[in-house]
Amino acid sequence: MINIVLFGKPGAGKGTQAEFLKEKYNLTHLSTGDIFRYNMKNDTALGKEAKSYIDNGDLVPDSVTIKMLQDEVDKHLDSKGFLFDGFPRTLAQADALDAFLKSKSWEVTATIALEADDDVLVQRILERGKTSGRADDQDEEKIRNRYQEYNEKTAPLMDYYKAQNKFYAVNGIGSIAEITERLSNVIDKL
Ligand SMILES: Nc1ncnc2c1ncn2[C@@H]1O[C@H](COP(=O)(O)OP(=O)(O)O)[C@@H](O)[C@H]1O
């Protein structure tokens, strides 16, 4: 069982890399952003609850997000391991994840951050917004708000995982294949 947390600012490439890593390492990919978007598209109660936060670039409240993530893990109890993408994003979520995995005798194996400069990332998101149809990708003010949320609430998680000796970082600038290789180099040594 290996459980990897993919970590990085909005636009860092977590989703793109997760697609390759899940195949290579036979992991269950859980993207909280994708799960929220699926629920918004299908107009579920969860989707309705999350929509206003997401469209404004705010984080969805912890209680909602943690419950959703736990339900998704519980749907895949026979998994060989999980690739968490977009979760945890707050200390409360990180604590909840540790406790939840522990209750199953599992743990986070490693957290790997994709690093890139903010200007590169904002440009990537605006490009993505032209085709993704995501409201939160099209408005520079909302994108800036996502970075503020990241800096205030998510960045402290680096110290949280460093204190557990579970934090790794790779350069997120380069070709998709190059970055997959950098991530694989970390995972292969775990
Ligand atoms: N763990 C989380 N906690 C709270 N909100 C979340 C979480 N994951 C995703 N969201 C919501 O979904 C939005 C989109 O997430 P995601 O697709 O991971 O985008 P990105 O990393 O590109 O900003 C976030 O801006 C936030 O509103």
Describe what this molecule looks like in 3D.
With 190 residues, the chain is an alpha/beta fold. The chain has one domain (4-188): P-loop containing nucleotide triphosphate hydrolases (Rossmann fold), CATH 3.40.50.300. It has helices at 14-25, 32-41, 45-56, 62-74, 91-102, 118-132, 140-154, 157-163, 176-188, and strands at residues 4-7, 28-31, 82-85, 110-115, 167-171. A 5-stranded parallel beta sheet has the order 2-3-1-4-5, sandwiched between helices. It is globular, with a radius of gyration of 16 Å. The mean pLDDT is 96. The chain binds adenosine-5'-diphosphate. Residues 10-11, 32-33, 36, 53-54, 57-60, 65, 86-87, 89, 93, 136, 146 line the site of adenosine-5'-diphosphate. This is Adenylate kinase. GO terms for molecular function: AMP kinase activity; ATP binding. Residues 31-60 are annotated as: NMP. Monomer. InterPro entries: Adenylat/UMP-CMP_kin (IPR000850), Adenylat_kinase_CS (IPR033690), P-loop_NTPase (IPR027417).
